[in-house]
């Protein structure tokens, strides 16, 4: 009796963390591909090619088994109709290679809750590196699990890894599900304030406005309104104080260099976008804000 077709796989433990997550079966218009699975909202695929190997790849916008824009992160030489759990090797990805297992929605939810619980336990034991790893697994399994982002960010802060903490919250800011109308149900005003405070600790407003304006749109953290309003004020303060008299020569040189870097990194354009954006949008509206910023 032929085995049932697996509908969903879970990928965890990959060094290229964007590969981790839930992959669901999908039709792929490519004669060279066998069973194919796609991570929701991405071009990442888990598929078996005609050479009999399994691949975890970026399949490009057209989502094909091969092509110029194709990136093979991991490969496994174990042939078969089901994706292998172990035996994966690093191709163009980052070590370690992941494990892959079949799952259903109920088991995925349970795995996410278990990973989060383990992460919280590690936090209590001050095992922050392990806490960050488990919290990352919880996010991969359930992107709407806000506590997973909070625990990982807090773990990075405890390790004095401020950039990693910032990037963790930025991933939430760019999450696919937020763009699909789940914000009111899953992301409240209190959540917004909480993550804005984490961002403030990870990248204190005023410490490096140049870097903030350079990464603001790239990381899509514009969704965290409280934080971005603070950045906006600092941006305009920097611009408005350009002509302020400074007695100390060293401080004046530093101010001029800072303003030069600010302009070179698109600070003025960023400030203008933010100013027009918040002048026209009174409510915390994700889709409208995305549209305005992408323009």
| Structural classification | alpha+beta
Strand order of the largest sheet: 7-6-5-4-3-2-1-8
Give the end-to-end Cα distance, rounded to a whole number of Å: 55 Å
Residue stretches low in confidence (pLDDT < 50, at least 5 long) are 281-295
- Supply the number of helical segments: 11
Tally of distinct domains: 3
How much helicity do the residues have?
40-55%
Percentage of β-strand residues: 5-15%
Q: Gyration radius, to the nearest Å?
A: 22 Å
**Total count of strands:** 8
Mean pLDDT over the full residue set: 80
Largest beta-sheet characterization: 8 strands, antiparallel
Overall description:
This protein is an alpha+beta fold. It folds into 3 domains: about 10-100, no CATH class; about 105-145; about 160-295, no CATH class. About 50% of the residues lie in helices and about 15% in strands. It has 11 helices and 8 strands. It has helices at about 105-125, 130-140, 145-160, 160-175, 185, 190-200, 210-220, 225-240, 250-265, 265-280, 285-295, and strands spanning about 10, 20-25, 35-40, 45-50, 55-60, 70-75, 90, 100. Strands 7-6-5-4-3-2-1-8 form an 8-stranded antiparallel beta sheet. Helix 3 runs parallel beside helix 6. The longest helix has 20 residues, at about 105-125. The protein starts with 7 loop residues before the first strand and ends with a helix. The relative contact order is 0.08. Residues about 280-295 have low confidence and may be disordered.
């Amino acid at each position: 009796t032929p085995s049932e077709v697996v509908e969903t796989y879970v990928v965890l433990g990959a060094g290229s963390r964007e590969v981790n997550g839930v992959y669901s079966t999908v039709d792929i218009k490519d004669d060279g591909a066998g069973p194919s699975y796609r991570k929701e909202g991405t071009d990442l695929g888990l598929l078996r090619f005609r050479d009999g190997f399994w691949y975890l790849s970026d399949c490009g916008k057209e989502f094909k088994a091969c092509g110029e824009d194709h990136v093979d992160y991991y490969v496994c030489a174990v042939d078969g109709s089901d994706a292998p759990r172990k035996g994966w090797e690093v191709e163009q990805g980052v070590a370690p290679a992941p494990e892959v297992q079949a799952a259903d929605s109920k088991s995925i939810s349970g795995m996410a809750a278990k990973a989060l619980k383990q992460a919280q336990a590690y936090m209590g034991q001050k095992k922050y590196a392990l806490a960050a790893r488990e919290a990352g697994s919880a996010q991969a399994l359930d992107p709407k699990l806000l506590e997973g982002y909070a625990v990982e960010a807090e773990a990075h802060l405890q390790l004095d890894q401020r950039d990693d903490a910032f990037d963790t919250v930025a991933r939430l800011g760019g999450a696919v599900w937020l763009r699909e109308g789940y914000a009111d149900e899953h992301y409240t005003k209190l959540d917004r304030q909480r993550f804005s405070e984490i961002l403030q600790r990870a990248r204190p407003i005023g410490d490096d406005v140049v870097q903030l304006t350079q990464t603001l749109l790239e990381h899509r953290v514009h969704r965290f309104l409280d934080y971005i309003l603070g950045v906006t004020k600092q941006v305009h303060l920097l611009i408005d104080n350009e002509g302020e008299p400074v007695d100390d020569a060293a401080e004046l040189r530093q101010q001029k260099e800072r303003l030069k870097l600010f302009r070179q990194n698109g600070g003025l354009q960023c400030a203008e976008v933010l100013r027009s954006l918040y002048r026209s949008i009174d409510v915390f509206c994700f889709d409208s804000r995305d549209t305005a910023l992408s323009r």
